[in-house]
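# nightly structure sweep
# worker-07 picked up a monomer target from the shared queue
# config: single-sequence mode, recycle default, output format = structure tokens
# input follows
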Amino acid sequence: MPTYEYRCTACQHTFEEFQSITAPPLRTCPQCGKRRLERLLGTGGGIIFKGSGFYITDYRSEAYKKAAEAEKKSASGGNGQEGGKTSHPTPDAHKKKKSKKAAGQQS
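# output follows
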């Protein structure tokens, strides 16, 4: 709901009134009681953005999202691994293989 500015042309009293857009304009001055109010053209309220913000990527089209997903899959080689990274065995896995071989040779 907007805030409207009013001024009485009889007594020059000015004030603001918070009212619905569909509400009729006020006519009677709360100070002098005369029906000489006029609604003024105000500057309006400023827009206040709260939260973390808005990003250009928040409103991408579905076609763009599908193309980006397809590009992401093709960049990873289609093997289900992200970014084309390959997994290498850890040094511990290599030690386990050696210890199994060594255990088999001792028997």
